[in-house]
Amino acid sequence: MMAQYIEIKAAHPDCLLFYRMGDFYELFFADAEIASRTLGIVLTKRGKHLGEDIPMCGVPVERAEDYLQRLIAAGHRVAVCEQTEDPAEARKRGGKSVVQRGVIRLVTPGTITEDNLLDPARANLLVAVARRRLSDTEWAYGLAAVDISTGRFTVTEVSAAGLAAEIARLEPRELVVPDAVYDDADLAGLWRETRAAVTPLAREGLDPASAERRVKDYFGVASLDAFGQFTRSEVAAAAAALAYVERTQLGSRPPLSPPSREAAGGTLAIDAATRANLELTRTLSGERPGSLLATIDRTVTPGGGRLLAERLAGPLTEIAAIARRQEAVAFLVGDSLLHERLRQALAAAPDIARALARLTLGRGGPRDLAALRDGLAAAGALARLLAASGDLPEELAAARAALETPDPALAGRLAAALADDLPLLKRDGGFVREGYDPALDEARALQADSRRFIAALQARYAAETGCRTLRVKHNNVIGYFVEVPQATGEDFLRPPFNETFVHRQTMAGAMRFSTVELGELEARIASAGERALGIELAIFDALLGEVVAATEAVKAAAEGLAVVDVTAALAKLAADLGWVRPQVDTSLAFRIEAGRHPVVEAALKRDGAAFVANDSDLSAPEGAAAGRIALVTGPNMAGKSTFLRQNALMVVLAQMGSFVPARAAHIGLVDRLFSRVGAADDLARGRSTFMVEMIETAAILNQATARSLVILDEIGRGTATFDGLSIAWAAIEHLHEVNRCRALFATHYHELTALAERLVRLGNVTVRVTEWQGEVVFLHEVVAGAADRSYGIQVAKLAGLPPAVIARARTILDELEKSDREKPVSALIDDLPLFAASVRSAPAAPAAGPQRDGLREALDAIDPDDLTPRAALEALYRLKSLRAAED
Predict the structure, then answer these.
(1) What's the superkingdom here (predicted)?
(2) Is 641 annotated as a binding residue?
(3) pLDDT tens digits, residue range 329-382?
(4) Which conformational region is residue 227 in: left (phi greater than 0), alpha (psi within -120 to 50 degrees), or beta?
(5) Which of 336, 535, 326, 351 is nearest to 429 (CA)?
(6) Is residue 303 annotated as involved in ligand binding?
(7) Does 637 appear as a known binding residue?
(8) In a domain, 218, yes or no
(9) Per the annotation, does 636 bind a ligand?
(10) N or C: fewer beta carbons within 10 Å in the chain?
């Protein structure tokens, strides 16, 4: 037996081997140690190998899927090894023959289909990567995304710079990477940082000719032109994905759709760091609750939940497509009665896409057929509701056509055949409705009669023997038997009872007997049961054949259900929360009136508080080919980061086709979204918090275009004050002069606010606060202007720092501010050229400017009505310092 195990394990070295032994799947050697740690089950020993004890652990077959779920979630792959012959056949061979076993399936994170192993609201993507050389130093990367649980199959090609962002958008469960790509040192960090399980793949069969042939053979076509035009890297990636699917499914072919090409640039480019900072689909801690997706999800079907997540992860960059989605949402917002009826019909729709995949792979059961029955019925009801609603917007009209694709007769036949209460497995029988098949009803009647015969026989035996506790029972070992208490059983061993009752077993406190009559009755019952189950299995296979023949129509209906669900969900969101349809066009506008952060607002509402809405205007000045930059100042805890994030989320929501949380919104199309908010280190790669900040900032400054939106928070705060101020200063100038993008730049370097006098598209805004009885009060209102202080000590006091520390900090702050007044850093603004000018003239020193009247300018800058007593005192000190300098 161990020789057989070792042989099978050698063929699947990268998998944990679930080796079937009776009612358990056993694991041995290193597999057992890994499974024991991951599953928290007992590690035992059995026998020896090469003089060492063999580690062993096991899981019950009936609970195997629960354990599989935990192993897959931990990133492991599992080879399921079953007995492939009847144990009786092995016994006939005699000697040391063992039951033949073989791997029937490889279970990996990217190829699972079972409901209890899948997240119903998340696509389960397997993504294969391939590449082609563009030049000596450049590569293009093809990606093929496959979800065998639904049949989705898409391909795209990206540059090396866009590879990480595209993988982050797809969020695969498993990555399949050719050896040469996997071993590329430049990509090692990407494979290490991804959340997906990464599987290297041998390159054999992935050359251009073999790759194209594999794809054509899978779909049975002579040319790929029918599916569109693909690059070599896209075809290679598609072939790698198909090769892995065929390897893991061991000959079974999932009903994949033909590959569809997603054009590069068709979705808003969002890098992995920005996705994490904005918490689009999960929070920074990796959880779905608290993310934007969880906040806006009003879908009622699993397919709708997956489509919503897909749209949120990849907002569009095509104006017409965005408008089509918005029109559909607006249509349902305007017809509340139709909207509610659609949602009621959708609530009855199970996950027909995944039920179909399980059925075609031979893993489905009666409940999957019932899911198709109910899903197709819901699709028909939705189609009728839409048909009765007059002229539909294009998005809903296309969904209605998809919903009408399946033949209504299929749903009718499934409804007529399937019982109301269904078993999980077809082998259990009892899933065909009574009255559907006369032969089946006859076999079932015989089974029922046999049970009555058993009851009658038990009553007769009890009367004849005088044993009222006599029972006729059944088990899988000896079949039907008569059981009596042990004291009575002794009498059954003597005449006259021993002529009728034949002793079988003696138990603790009971004895078991058989009779000729009972044996004959058992044979009739078994025959009737086998016949009934055979008829039911034949009916199942016939229904399955009809379903497989209608695969494309069912998949179309599933897509239609998802589109209607997402549209209705976004309409409900807009209607319930007062969101508005944003104007999205090709301009460089960015104007938000009374914008709100959807996640923060939802959290405040749960606590009974209100969100303070704020305006934002980053629109390009009339005639300008570049957007504005807003320099945001204000204290910690005042809401700067919330304000920054909510404006970024406006873009994501608007370009995915949703309404937005604002009174009005005009957003010029954004091609790339960058966000550098918060701080984190990367100790595993030897990167400090400041290094991570600089790497992310570098990516923004190197890639942002005039059509991008950039969100930067506290750049330069992770190093010394003058170093950080210098970096932040130069970054603002670069954004203004080189990137020329729309941007929000939050900072505590108040000296930077003076740049607004030199940079024509830079404006200052601040988050208002006030002081009341010595305490700082955050108003969360963003207004034009600049903050004159950060209120850091007041925030520290709120956090609970000891009073002695707070008092000492105030003293130190007074001394530092006094020193700064003698030569404020802001004075350098007039002495240094702009970034663009310094680049052009370097390394020459800038020419000295005309003499300035610093005292008069400082006096003109003071607004007495806007000064607190402390600020007035500080202003007076600055004026005296300037006067002394001039003297």
Answers:
(1) Bacteria
(2) yes
(3) 999 999 999 999 999 999 999 999 999 999 998 889 999 999 999 999 999 999
(4) alpha
(5) 535
(6) no
(7) yes
(8) yes
(9) yes
(10) C
